[in-house]
Each structure stands twice: as C-alpha cells, then as structure tokens.
Amino acid sequence: MTSGAILDIARDGIVVFLKVGGPLMAVALLVGLVVSLVQALTQIQEQTLVFVPKILAVFASLLLLLPFMGDALAGYMGRVAVRIATGG
User: Fold this and answer.
1) d(C-alpha 34, C-alpha 22), whole Å
2) For every one of its 88 residues, what pLDDT tens digit does the chain have, with 9 covering 90 and above?
3) C-alpha separations of 37 from 1, 34, 52 in Å
C-alpha cells in the first residue's frame, strides 16, 4: 500500500467523521447559543439549565439523522473493504 492510498483513506475517514459528527455538533451549538441568549435576557444564571435542552435536542437530531449517518459509515466501510479485498 502506497503512502498516497493511505492518505486517501485517512482523508476519506476525516470527511466521513465530519459528515457524521458535524450535524450533531451544530445542533448542540445552536441550542446552547439559544439557551445562553435566553439566560442572558432573563438573567437566570443557572449553569445546569443548558444541559437538558441540549441533550434532548441532540438525541432528537440523532434519531432524525441516524439513517444518513449509518449510510455514510456503511459507504466508508464498503470503500475500505474494497481496498482490502483488491490489495490496495
């Protein structure tokens, strides 16, 4: 296996990682931002208030995006398996 092939597999893995993790991180960021804005506007400074809405939003988006995430991971595994089967 050449160094170019290894770099291709690593690059593909990073892209798949970003496709799978990016939407969940974006949802968590947006919910955290909205809750922080509400806390600032209402002057409620409870630190644990952020966690429950963020967990619920991430869980809901996980259920919604799970087919997309599974498809991205299965496609990556298929591409890696083809490289293993063909020897590079």
Assistant:
1) 18
2) 788 889 999 999 999 999 999 999 999 999 999 998 998 898 887 878 888 999 999 999 999 999 999 999 999 999 999 998 988 6
3) 51, 5, 16
Q: 19: alpha, beta or left, given left = phi > 0 and alpha = psi -120 to 50?
A: alpha
Domain ranges of the chain: 3-86
CA distances from 43 to 35, 38, 47 (A): 11, 8, 12
Residue 61 tokens read as: 């988006």
Phi first, then psi, for residue 46 (nearest 5°) are -85, 120
- Rounded alpha-carbon distances, angstroms, from residue 83 to 7, 23, 65: 13, 28, 28
Single pTM value for the model: 0.80
Q: At what angle do helices 51-86 and 3-42 cross, to 10 degrees?
A: 170
State both tokens at 10.
């690593």
